[in-house]
Amino acid sequence: MGSLMFSLSLSRLVLWASGFILVLVFLKLAHLLLRRQKLARAMDSFPGPPTHWLFGHALEIQQTGSLDKVVSWAHQFPYAHPLWFGQFIGFLNIYEPDYAKAVYSRGDPKASDVYDFFLQWIGRGLLVLEGPKWFQHRKLLTPGFHYDVLKPYVAVFAESTCAMLDKWEKKACEDKSFDIFCDVGHMALDTLMKCTFGKGNSGLGHRDNTYYRAVSDLTLLMQQRLESFQYHNDFIYWLTPHGRRFLRACQVAHDHTDQVIRERKAALQNEKEREKIQKKRHLDFLDILLGALDENGSKLSDADLRAEVDTFMFEGHDTTTSGISWFLYCMALYPEHQNRCREEICEILGDRDTIQWDDLGKMTYLTMCIKESFRLYPPVPQVYRQLSKPVTFVDGRSLPEGSLISLHIYALHRNGTVWPDPEVFDPLRFSPENVAGRHPFAFMPFSAGPR
């Protein structure tokens, strides 16, 4: 009798649990459908490319390459068009300066539908924070970017670059081509490890190399997840091989950051070590974070410290590696511009063999070449916002509060109405006379505005 009662109770429990799960699934589906309807209605006045019934535009983008595909759509649909990742996430994709100004001159928060993917790795740092906490963190971090802090870093950059060039000299002797991207990535990480964590000049150790591989993995996996709508659901993603690999890499990155923070905090407890750190030839980013106090005298928590360090490492490493690699590609492709840059540098250096802070402002032609490289190959090709209030664009069309915006920087920089012959590498686009008459939101390699 007891076993029968237990069996009936168990059956009733399973039935209730099944019913509860079905209700939750139904509510989630209803929420997604209502949200889709709201997003679609908001973008009614913006024509765009046809969507797949399940994948939206994601499948076509994956098959043909997202950057050039969006540029081709930008030719068909001036100003903007809807962009759907699957059926439930839809952005208004913009690539026109006045449209960019209407949104990016404001302080709208990052679109959580995209930036929440970063949380497992970089936590709630400056990239994804919003509201009062964002202002607090920004204020605490601002001293880390003062000229007096940055000036000594030029020597650090030079040391890491020389190590990379020595490596390339050996490879060049083999008289065969080699991929520079990984070497540039190692150089960028080596520089960041010195500027962020105060690492010595002995290069990356085994633990640092493991960290480098983890950061490289996370960057690639993040891009794959953004472009694969089936990975947008956390529960599904963590069950896939890509998701598990992402979590393993996160653990490696977090362990590394946590250990460095623990070691630095322990060193600061020791008076001699504290004096040694304070007498260093330059403060590193971690020194500044550990010493930062708000108006109430409060310090960053351990979670906030890790979030800001991981954010800084991700943003500094990924964008720097991409920007330098594509710039070198452009210099190799256009030797006439490479020669002019070399002549300018040789003239500035004279008998010296290394760059100093005051030299940077004299590199006018090199700066124009870097900017033109950033125009063609922006290190951050696309950024996202969620409107905190309605916006009306220059042509009278508008979007309500809550709408999602994608600024496609790659397509903006190839907008033929702004940039004549946009595929041509022409550094003189950034001469003072040409810049003077250009829309201030036509060139946005790292986004724009208060965010």
Automatic annotation (TrEMBL):
InterPro entries noted in UniProt: Cyt_P450, Cyt_P450_E_grp-I, Cyt_P450_sf, Cytochrome_P450_Monoox
One Gene Ontology CC term in the entry: endoplasmic reticulum membrane
Main location: endoplasmic reticulum
Entry-linked Pfam families: p450
GO molecular function terms attached to this record: heme binding; iron ion binding; monooxygenase activity; oxidoreductase activity, acting on paired donors, with incorporation or reduction of molecular oxygen
Localization in the cell: Endoplasmic reticulum membrane
Protein family (similarity comment): Belongs to the cytochrome P450 family.
Name assigned to this protein: Cytochrome P450 4B1
Native source species: Orycteropus afer afer
Taxonomic lineage of the native organism: Eukaryota, Metazoa, Chordata, Craniata, Vertebrata
